[in-house]
Amino acid sequence: MSGAILLAGTASDVGKSVLTAGVCRYLKRQGVSVAPFKAQNMALNAAVTIDGGEIGRAQAAQAAACGIPPETAMNPILIKPTGGHRSQVIVMGRPAFDAGARDYHRRRTALLPAVLDALNGLKGRFDAVVCEGAGSAAEINLRPHDLANMGLARAANMPVVLIADIDRGGALASLYGTLALLEPDDQALVAGFVINRFRGDPAVLEPGLEQLRQLTGRPCLGVLPHLNGLDFDAEDSLALDRPLPSIAPLGSDSLEVAVVRLPRISNFTDVDALAAEPGVEVRFTTSTADVRRADLVILPGTKNTVGDLAWLRETGLAEAIADRAAAGGPILGVCGGYQMLGRTIIDDIESREGTATGLGLLPVVTVFHEDKTLKIHSGSAPGLGDMPVGGYSIRHGRPAADGGKAWLRDADGTDEGCAVGAVWGTSWHSVLEHDEARRAFLSIVADAAGLDWKPGDEPFAAVREQRLDRLGDLIADHLDVNALETLLADGPPTDLPVAPPGGAPAPRAWTGENP
Description:
Layout: E1 3-9, H1 16-29, E2 34-37, E3 40-42, E4 46-48, E5 54-56, H2 57-66, E6 77-83, E7 86-91, E8 94-100, H3 101-107, H4 112-125, E9 128-132, H5 150-156, E10 160-165, H6 171-181, H7 184-187, E11 190-198, H8 202-216, E12 220-225, E13 255-260, E14 265-266, H9 272-275, E15 280-285, H10 288-293, E16 296-299, E17 301-302, H11 305-315, H12 317-326, E18 331-334, H13 336-341, E19 344-347, E20 354-357, E21 364-381, E22 387-401, E23 405-410, E24 415-420, E25 423-426, H14 435-449, H15 460-478, H16 481-490
């Protein structure tokens, strides 16, 4: 096997990221050397790679499904919205320019060589590359400069599998309509369909799939059932509309964690490890009542620290956070959230707002710099029993503490976290994924609340591996893996019917029997 395939969708959030990870894990278990790829990603959840760059968090998780470390080639273009209809554009792991939507669309064609170089580099080193599309494959207003969907498939001559989420309704129409809107040369690359998140009896769906095959000449390669708890590192704030699953407590009290849902929230997967602990309920919220009531409040990362700080004040959440701190309620700020908890933020880079007054709960001054800190850390947590811990940084802001307790320390001796009373802050993402540190911190939270909470004993890394294996099982059990492997080996079929845009054959009346 040697090739690449594109898993495209009829819309955003139809399951492309999850299916890409599942196919990657399935192929890895078959002994195939495989890598993920997403040409262009708009996401505020990011990860730092082994080569010192920044990519979408979903691609880092997909790399884990492949059993390989993440690298910048897996997501050559990352777009991070900053507010005001502008975004920071990351090219091959590094900030390249800021742009509005129109400006970026004019510049996209010039980015195609970097995208193809990254893809071809992966194809040269791996047996298979599983590519994830972005948004809808039929965004025809963007097609002339498309880098992530059919433009990529055409440039690389890749077969395409089109995915629809039946849980939304209208899946068959979405598949048919998406194909009909494509140019004939794009249609020729679409080799089949996948139905995702199906509930009910597949026999009831089968007549519709057969009619779709007759109308389009393309088979359905799989109907994937709706599975609860099929968790995956999200890249899109749409995921915040679904609550994090909680695990029943093991004969102990439960802890309630409220994560403030900032308008430009980023790297919210930092809290996934909390939800994996028995008896910890995590919710994203904009409620002042939740902030006052919860056992722990987390101010997460943001792509616009000063803008979201102003929003906290406008909504009354800043006052609720201050009241909570005065009452000794635990608060944790991560990256941008840490900066907000400080005294002063000087930002002529991200928001260009100059000097802003922070919440004043930590003795920290943050100055934003043009060059971005992208670093994987290892060190210790002197504030949690001096246990080993690590994380990663993605930030323009550089916080400096003048006082407080240094509770995280880099291996080079730099203090990377500050605490005063029950208010904690750090620039590091993924600290809570370290089992000892997470459980020690939550035990402090439980003591502050007077709760008898007992931690679990399963490593979070094992939980993640189990999730990826479930995705691999889903593909093995419900997808036509022989057809998938044939597409990877042989490329797009050469005999697929095509029609001019909008010229797909009109539906015929169904007779009530399967042909």
